[in-house]
Amino acid sequence: MAQVWRSCSSCKKDIVVSSKYYECSVSTCNGKRTGLVFCSVPCFERHLPGARHKDAAAIENKAPATPYQADAPKRRIVVSKPASGATPSTPTVKSGSGNQHEVLVVASKLKKYVQDSAGMNTSQAVMNVLSDKLRRLCDEAAENARRDGRKTLMDRDFK
Ligand SMILES: [Zn+2]
Ligand SMILES: [Zn+2]
């Protein structure tokens, strides 16, 4: 099995020793400290929106025959500040408060609705299922609001 030289800075796929790889023509990207390497041109292109280069080109290179020696603990490359300079979004999604199993629907009203519209009784377990669905819908909507840079969930976030 071929030895791995480094992994692609985009897709994290292994780049094996003595194989082709690509680097960015912009010096801040290909410098010794940052050292972005890409396994393919599409992976190179994927770093462009965050890097905001005026013009950059992929440079084809050949990986050395020996595995890359990381002399320092792996550096975490800080990626893409929001391009517009808008409200920084927090990528960590906290999944709700601790109350993952709290019932969010008014059981009496829901039961009355089902009784009136369908003439059926509603089992208590339905409340849990609906509550889970509501939580999921709200999580998705919150994601939309966050992407919009808002801190208020709005009707249009539910699609
Ligand atoms: Zn890649
Ligand atoms: Zn670059």
Q: Descriptors for this entry?
A:
single chain, 159 residues, alpha+beta, two-stranded antiparallel ribbon, 4 strands, binds zinc ion
Summarize the SSE layout with pairings.
Blueprint: E1 4-7, E2 14-16, E3 20-24, H1 27-30, H2 41-46, H3 48-51, E4 58-62, H4 107-118, H5 124-147
Antiparallel strand pairs: 1-2, 3-4
The structure holds zinc ion (2 copies).
Tell me briefly what this model is.
By secondary structure, the protein is of the alpha+beta class. It is built from 5 helices and 4 strands; from the N terminus they run βββαααβαα.
Explained architecture:
The protein has 159 residues and is of the alpha+beta class. Among the domains are: 59 residues, no CATH class; 51 residues, no CATH class. Helix content is 31%, strand content 11%. The chain has five helices and four strands. Strands 1-2 form a two-stranded antiparallel ribbon. A two-stranded antiparallel sheet has the order 3-4. Strand 1 and strand 2 form a beta hairpin. The chain is elongated. Bound molecules: zinc ion (2 copies). The site of one zinc ion has 7 residues, from loops.
